[in-house]
Amino acid sequence: MVREVDETKYISIQENDLDQKILEEDLFYNITKSICPKCKKTIDAQILVRKNKVLMRKRCSQHGWSESLISSDFEYYRAIERFNKPGIKKLEYQTEVKEGCPADCGICPEHKQHTCLALIEITNRCNMACPICFANAGGKEGVDLPIDVIEGMIDNLTSSESNQVEIVQISGGEPSIHPNLLKIITKCKERGIKTVMLNTNGRKFASDLAFAHAVKNAGLNAVYLQFDGFEKNTYDKLRGNPNLLEEKLHAIENLSLTGIAITLIMTVVKGINDHEIGEILRFVHESKGIMGVSFQPLFAEGRLDLKYDPLDHLTTIDIIKLIEEQTGFYTKEDFFSIPCPEPHCSACSFSYIDPDTKEFTTIRRLIEVEDYLDYFTNSTLPTNAEQVIKDALEELFSMATTPGSINLVEGYCAACGIDLNIGSIQESLQKYVEHLKMVMIKPFMSSYDLDIKRLMKCCIHQVLPDGKIMPFCAYNTIYRDQYDLKDFL
Ligand code: SF4
Ligand code: SF4
Ligand code: SF4
Ligand SMILES: [Zn+2]
User: Fold this and answer.
1) 165 touches ligand 2 (CB under 6 Å)
2) Can you say whether the dihedral through the CA atoms of 11, 16, 22, 25 is positive or negative?
3) What is the dihedral of CA 214, 220, 224, 227, to 10 degrees?
4) Using a 6 Å cutoff on CB, does residue 142 contact ligand 2?
5) What is the reported pTM?
6) Residues flanking ion ligand 4, Cβ below 5 Å
7) Where do the H-state alpha helices sit in 209-315?
8) Which atom of ligand 1 is nearest to the CA of 111?
9) Counting atoms of ligand 2 from 1, which one is nearest the CA of 172?
10) How far apart are the CA of 458 and the centre of ligand 3, in A?
């Protein structure tokens, strides 16, 4: 594994006189827990404001001080803390509370949110070997998990959520190359999972239309398709192959023919493809089969054959500002945190270009979303009509929302106060499914910026072959190295 992190920027900062002066000017904002990026020991972490940027500063008794950027804009960081609703407890726990978070993962009874979205990694094999891969997949050593182990994972998940799982993402490695994929999808549907998604690089879908039809017939609802931009340099640096665009476009074409809903996943890296964000959004709005896009700033876990500076990387607000600058039609105000996880875990917008008038709008421009999702200042009980809107907004602004579904359009209409019982409206809803896009920013954490406050309310959970279920960020930062899929063959 190559790991190129510029450690001079964040280790042993106390030894540097200039940085001491900066420290004196820091505003101490908060304290949380994190881990040492070297030995992963749980340690205290200060949240500091330095020149309007928010930093995490922490010290390991063995490895010294480290600092990382967690938001480029303090005002934004503070403002979104209002969007934080009470969690729902899980019905079953897989571990006990013994040593405290994050040593007790999981899910332990102290966890504050149930599973909105579950990830099941069925293989660590891959038909690519990208320079960046948090799953560190694609090596010669990879294995596919056996079908009985995977079925056990699905059963464990569904029983822990009283058989009401909203979304499962089948992941890897590259899950499309698992020989039992169709059976796995069928099993998920048999267990009543509403939306079954596949996280894929798209390679198999590009070359095999029959395969796309087969997974659709097995019950697959949607894919998360790796799509980092349009330029050769982007694919060269991030995926190790400059000529991937055509393949990605073929995958989109084939998936669109089957009706599987597509969400593009763009890993955004400062100085490499962050100038392509606007182009991707224009592409999403022009494409019928693409229902949304998720921008994921690079986080430093797994294989990282790229220079990464913990003090100079993209944060959520950077992406929002780039969207505003590069599109000219979105604004910062169009984005909200999803309130089911901790508010710093996401930003989201629902947007729409009217097929007839070509007018662009977002849900924020139609309704005062914060009047309903600000859980700190709204203490009065809502009226019945307000409750309907609040419920609809909570369903929309959830990690369990799937782009490209009729439910999404219904939720959008309900939130905007449109009466769905009028016959003509029901008939025309389907027409709007392809025009309503979900734009998400997902800032996953690495061991440099891991905040246990966020971890404890995580609703994106990794289901593991030994029966445990844990936050995706806990798995990637702390636990992944402890699992070898070969032990489950
Ligand atoms: S992250 Fe959640 S499940 Fe894991 S130890 Fe903390 S509270 Fe428990
Ligand atoms: S990032 Fe995805 S496509 Fe690339 S090696 Fe990892 S699993 Fe494979
Ligand atoms: S996976 Fe990470 S970023 Fe996402 S909700 Fe969980 S803790 Fe937050
Ligand atoms: Zn350490």
Assistant:
1) no
2) positive
3) 20
4) no
5) 0.92
6) 36, 38-39, 60, 62-63
7) 209-218, 232-239, 245-258, 277-286
8) 7
9) 7
10) 5
Q: Which two tokens stand for residue 123?
A: 């293989």
Structure tokens of 412? 């959008």
3-state helix, strand, coil in the chain (%, to 5): 35, 20, 40
Per-residue pLDDT tens digits of the chain, which is 489 residues long: 445 565 554 554 444 544 666 667 889 999 999 999 999 999 999 999 999 999 999 999 988 889 999 999 999 999 999 888 788 887 789 999 999 999 999 899 999 999 999 999 999 999 999 999 999 998 777 999 999 999 999 999 999 887 788 899 999 999 999 999 999 999 999 999 999 999 999 999 999 999 999 999 999 999 999 999 999 999 999 999 999 999 999 999 999 999 999 999 999 999 999 999 999 999 999 998 999 999 999 999 999 999 899 999 999 999 999 999 999 999 999 998 988 899 999 999 988 888 788 888 887 777 776 776 666 555 555 666 666 666 766 776 776 777 766 666 666 666 666 655 555 555 565 666 778 899 999 999 999 999 999 999 999 999 999 999 999 999 999 999 999 999 999
Please give the Cα distance from 486 to 489 (Å, whole number).
5
